[in-house]
């Protein structure tokens, strides 16, 4: 496949945001917890909506969501909302089903709770289509020594970290292929932890694109403080670049 064909098609960002984030121990879904001046999800959507290559953003929400309409980003003309499902894969599939059957779009799936995504990382992932026409994900090489635990909580073994990567998002795939593989994997009862796992199950080998370390997922309360530090640092750097 030539690079021109590989890079064709619109870019549709998909944000599964129907979860409740129970590990945060909060009274509201974690994507609506305040981070600096606005909710986590607002930061995430702003990063996607403001990227010039992204044509559309589809957000999959819980049927009981009563917070989304309060976000300024919720009223963007580039944004569409759909009802999500119980699991992440169900929400992503619901968003993909909102696209035309003959769509040649690329689906850029990003976690609702990763508010520090940079345009530079999006650019790198989009550019990777020329080398990985089957799709690719942002990821980071494992840096720390890895241990496998025994059932009693002790160390069972040290795992070689060579060739191990932490999977991040966004994850980018041809929308039609991702939809088909998600549908078939779910019908087969396969556990789908991210979009790449559905593609892998179908025999596809997605590419790995090195991403930034500050693209963290807010999962535990301490992550909010770290995300705030990263966002502030990014804002300072952006201001410095604009003044030079």
List the topology elements.
Layout: H1 3-6, E1 11-17, E2 34-35, E3 38-39, H2 40-49, E4 56-61, E5 79-83, H3 88-96, E6 106-109, H4 119-127, E7 136-141, E8 146-149, E9 155-159, E10 165-174, H5 175-187, H6 195-201, E11 207-210, H7 221-242
Helix pairs in contact: 3-5, 5-6
Keywords:
244 residues, alpha/beta, Spore Coat Polysaccharide Biosynthesis Protein SpsA, Chain A, seven-stranded mixed β-sheet, disordered N terminus
The gyration radius over C-alpha positions equals: 18 Å
**N/C terminus separation:** 41 Å
Largest sheet: 7 strands, mixed
Find the CATH topology: Spore Coat Polysaccharide Biosynthesis Protein SpsA, Chain A
Question: Concise description?
Answer:
The chain is α/β, with parallel strands linked by helices.
Characterise the protein shown here.
- With 244 residues, the chain is of the alpha/beta class.
- The chain has one domain (3-117, 170-203, 214-242): Spore Coat Polysaccharide Biosynthesis Protein SpsA, Chain A.
- The protein is built from seven helices and eleven strands.
- It has helices at residues 3-6, 40-49, 88-96, 119-127, 175-187, 195-201, 221-242, and strands at 11-17, 34-35, 38-39, 56-61, 79-83, 106-109, 136-141, 146-149, 155-159, 165-174, 207-210.
- The strands form three sheets. The protein has a seven-stranded mixed sheet, sandwiched between helices. Strands 2-3 form a two-stranded antiparallel ribbon.
- Helix 3 (88-96) packs across helix 5 (175-187) and helix 5 (175-187) crosses helix 6.
- Residues 1-6 have low confidence and may be disordered.
């Amino acid at each position: 496949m030539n690079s021109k064909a590989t890079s064709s098609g619109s870019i549709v960002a998909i944000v599964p945001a129907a979860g409740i984030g129970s590990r945060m121990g909060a009274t509201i879904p974690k994507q609506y917890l305040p981070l600096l001046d606005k909710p986590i999800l607002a930061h995430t959507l702003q990063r996607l909506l403001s990227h010039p290559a992204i044509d559309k953003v589809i957000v999959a929400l819980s049927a009981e969501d009563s917070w989304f309409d309060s976000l300024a980003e919720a009223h963007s003309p580039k944004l569409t909302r759909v009802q999500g499902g119980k699991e992440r894969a169900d929400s992503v599939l619901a968003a993909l089903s909102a696209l035309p059957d003959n769509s040649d779009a690329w689906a850029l799936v990003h976690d609702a709770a990763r508010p520090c995504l940079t345009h530079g990382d999006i650019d790198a992932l989009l550019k990777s289509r020329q080398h990985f026409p089957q799709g690719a994900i942002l990821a980071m090489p494992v840096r720390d020594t890895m241990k496998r635990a025994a059932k009693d909580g002790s160390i069972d073994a040290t795992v070689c970290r060579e060739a191990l990567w932490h999977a991040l998002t966004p994850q980018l795939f041809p929308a039609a292929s991702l939809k088909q593989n998600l549908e078939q994997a779910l019908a087969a009862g396969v556990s789908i932890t991210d979009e790449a796992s559905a593609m892998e199950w179908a025999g596809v080998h997605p590419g790995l694109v090195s991403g930034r370390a500050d693209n963290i997922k807010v999962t535990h309360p301490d992550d909010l403080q770290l995300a705030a530090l990263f966002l502030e640092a990014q804002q300072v750097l952006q201001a410095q670049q604009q003044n030079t």
